[in-house]
Amino acid sequence: MGNITREKRDSFIKQIIDETRLRGRLTVRDACQMLGMNRDAVQRYFNIAENSGEVYRHGNLGLFPDYRATIKFDLQRYTSKKGAK
To answer: Which is one Pfam family of this protein (predicted)?
Structure first.
């Protein structure tokens, strides 16, 4: 990826945060496609975005706009798995 300016890095992080709020959930795969970056770079930006406190990371499931969104996501996953049996 090479050296990037602080402004460019901050721009990527802002895009990640904004897109997370817009979609309700942003995965590393989605961010890689959106930003045209490799997985390692996106994961570094996810960590920075999470540390900002503006979004929440929920395991390997991606970033969420708030903690309630993670609970809602887990409930949907649980009920869909339970209903599949």
So the answer is: DUF977
Separation between Cα atoms, residue 84 and residue 50, nearest integer Å: 33
Domain locations in the chain as residue ranges: 6-84
**CA geometry: angle 80, 83, 85, nearest 5 deg:** 115
Per-residue pLDDT tens over the stretch 34-82:
999 999 999 999 999 999 999 999 888 899 999 888 888 888 888 876 6
Distance of CA 1 to the CA centre of its chain: 20
What is the reported pTM?
0.82
The CATH architecture of the domain made up of 6-84 is Orthogonal Bundle (1.10)
